[in-house]
């Protein structure tokens, strides 16, 4: 009984990894449209001491999804290559927002919660206490901006949540669902009237935390906040690719599926006019819109649901400067949309993972506002000019970069707008009702982070094995 995995990004590679563990005797083939695996994770090295991350650059170690990824990393033999950032590191303790022409550090300690820090006009604890008396609003879903504005105040939503959403998914907090990042808090309000009451009601009912071991236990003891790898994030997909190949899983590159049909209990994947693969089950890790395109002839309703999950374009500008140019070390800064600045934020790569005495920065641009700011097809030179102009204005960096790279990541981050969970539920119901030999995983459905997509692949494989 063969399995075919569509897509060689981190989710597709993880699905192959878990299949090799769970169903080792089943033949598996991973099919990727491009000439490489790894998806959006790509580490470019202009020199031996400099790494330009063009996609995800760090992973969080917390919670069950974080522990799951750390377990996978251990099994791949990558423990010695992990580069952690602990709680005391400036990249963990100093995260900033750019408001009204100035950089402001966000509260990051107990003491800072009780002091007024610009751009806020009162101590953070005052915003948090507002939840105690804010009125409940009974809704199925709402934007994360509206939810946090109701419960904690407009400044909290404007200067904390809105830039956070820009950083996490390059999206608009006024459109993105509260369930994207604050699902539990939203459920507390709906059930008990406030987040605070929900926390109090559940403090004694919380399930016993999973016993950690190995790398996950070390991460908790050492208080890791985020981590990467010595040779860059691409270390992870490269290791997964090497592992599954050794397990006998076939990896086929440069093969774009153009049509997917289901005939009785079989799936037929067409690649152009001349090549067809047949399987008893397909695991799709490609973007939902891409899956929608290949099933639309046979299942138009499913295609409609899949293509309704929209994604945004992001421009990533990596720059390498000689010398140390950052005066206030930290993770970097984000820009609230209301500032009308043509960048989403800047990451201080050389502060997070210093590999030399030079300065390495990443400027993130576009997202929800890509076409509005840059048009449909901006040149790389223009994007570089905009990025350098903002670095000059905000950080005072005038000098020419020694190396730079401009990448336009087309439709790279799905947007979990209000109603997303219901849409995903409808997609799964359609697949189940029509008994399609199809499973879906990846960033389009249950989280856009590295941990999320790895865990989504694991769950899909677990469901298959239980059948």
From TrEMBL:
Q: Which organism is it from?
A: Exocentrus adspersus
- Chief localization: mitochondrion
Subcellular location(s) of the protein: Mitochondrion inner membrane
Q: What are the record keywords, sorted?
A: FAD, Flavoprotein, Heme biosynthesis, Oxidoreductase, Porphyrin biosynthesis
| Name of the protein in question | Protoporphyrinogen oxidase
The top EC class, named as a word, is oxidoreductase
InterPro entries per the record?
A: Amino_oxidase (IPR002937), FAD/NAD-bd_sf (IPR036188), Protoporphyrinogen_oxidase (IPR004572), Zeta_carotene_desat/Oxidored (IPR050464)
Name the family the entry cites: Belongs to the protoporphyrinogen/coproporphyrinogen oxidase family. Protoporphyrinogen oxidase subfamily.
